[in-house]
TrEMBL record:
Gene: trhO
Family from the record: Belongs to the TrhO family.
Protein name per the record: tRNA uridine(34) hydroxylase
Protein source organism: Sphingopyxis panaciterrulae
InterPro entries referenced in this protein's UniProt entry, alphabetically: Rhodanese-like_dom (IPR001763), Rhodanese-like_dom_sf (IPR036873), TrhO (IPR020936), TRHO_N (IPR040503)
SUPFAM superfamilies: Rhodanese/Cell cycle control phosphatase
Enzyme class: oxidoreductase
A biological process from GO: tRNA modification
Domain Rhodanese: residue ranges: 122-216
Catalytic activity: uridine(34) in tRNA + AH2 + O2 = 5-hydroxyuridine(34) in tRNA + A + H2O
């Protein structure tokens, strides 16, 4: 039986994320869902897997939470359950950047649809930055994208401050796996005084799903945080296939 996988996130103001945990955990457990969900005052993030009906029930529950009607979800499939267990955890941040005062729900940069992304990659006046860590980038990335060579997303602010002068006067276009790190990093850059900063809507996963391989600027596969390891165009499971280029 094919397993439905849903990568999801939403920056939303949760006054009491702890109160949201038990009902969400109970629903996931009752429906046989596995994966990881993170709850924080800034919103929700995670990837879950199960039957199509079970995943749909959990997504409907999350969309009913305050500020989550527009929950960002990217669906894919797996031949077998890609998670060993279920975790619903409370965190300080749903994606750790360690920059106080950021509000991606209000301050993130504009989005660029996957269909329009190639024009940015091809534009010499645009600097395209991969916000993922160096390990993930080893599986694949967009042609010509800057690799900050970070070990974790929390290293990105220091990297940017060390290199910001190199990108002065250019449009900055950023991308990540599903979009969450981009929303936070564009909010960070705007706070650093960068006026023209955008990010790939839905991240690499949306691009690989929507853009035909013949037109793609993507090289390699995309690392995902489950036992499939990585996916390719059409979100087809690739496995542990690092980019040789």
């Amino acid at each position: 039986m094919t397993v439905t996988v849903a990568a999801l996130y939403r920056f939303a103001p949760f006054d009491d994320p702890a109160a949201l945990r038990a009902p969400l955990l109970d629903l996931c457990a009752a429906r046989g869902i596995r994966g990881t969900l993170l709850l924080a005052r800034e919103g929700i993030n995670g990837t879950i897997a199960g039957s199509a009906a079970a995943v749909a029930a959990v997504i409907a529950h999350i969309r009913a939470l305050p500020g989550c009607a527009d929950l960002d979800v990217k669906y894919s499939a797996a031949a077998a359950m890609p998670f060993g267990r279920l975790k619903v955890r409370l965190k300080t941040e749903i994606v750790t950047m360690k920059v106080p005062g950021l509000d991606p729900a209000r301050e993130a940069g504009a989005t660029v649809a996957p269909a329009d992304w190639n024009a940015l990659v091809d534009d010499p006046g645009t600097v395209v930055i991969d916000t993922r860590n160096d390990f993930e980038i080893g599986y694949g990335s967009f042609a010509g994208a800057v690799n900050p060579r970070t070990k974790s997303f929390g290293d990105f602010p220091a990297w940017w401050r060390d290199h910001a002068a190199e990108f002065a006067g250019k449009r900055v276009a950023m991308f990540c796996t599903g979009g969450i790190r981009c929303e936070k990093s564009t909010a960070f850059l705007k706070g650093e005084g960068v006026a023209d900063v955008v990010h790939l809507k839905g991240g690499i996963l949306a691009y690989l799903e929507q853009v035909p391989e013949a037109e793609s600027r993507w090289h390699g596969s995309c690392f995902v945080f489950d036992e499939r390891v990585s996916v390719g165009h059409g979100l087809v499971e690739v496995g542990d296939a690092r980019d040789p280029s």
